[in-house]
Amino acid sequence: MKYTDYRPAVDSPPKASFLDCALEALSISVVLWHSLLILTSWSSLPEQLPRHFDLTGQVTAHGSRWFLVLFVGVSLAIYTFVTVLVWTGAFWKSIFIFWLDRGGVRA
Fold this sequence. Notes:
The protein is mainly alpha-helical and 107 residues long. The chain has one domain. Helices cover 54% and strands 11% of the residues. The protein contains three helices and two strands, in the order H-E-E-H-H. It has helices spanning 18-41, 67-87, 89-101; strands at 48-53, 59-64. Strands 1-2 form a two-stranded antiparallel ribbon. Helix 1 runs antiparallel to helix 2. The model has no long low-confidence stretch (mean pLDDT 80).
């Protein structure tokens, strides 16, 4: 008998709880705060910023202040990726069940 004979129908994702909404708001506010912090202090930042320190505290690498824009982009990309994965959980569950029906992991 296949695994699909026992599985429930894949429904739409459950409604978000208060904790889910609070964590989403916290995540968005951290990304926005990070972006606003960089924007408001941009004119006072030097052209070259320390990027790496060795164990003694000496600067071993410098980078442009534009490198900070990369941090904002990466944090926004990670937030978006994780949010899409969470809110499309029913889709990924159906993909996993399809994979199990085709043999999945065999011991």
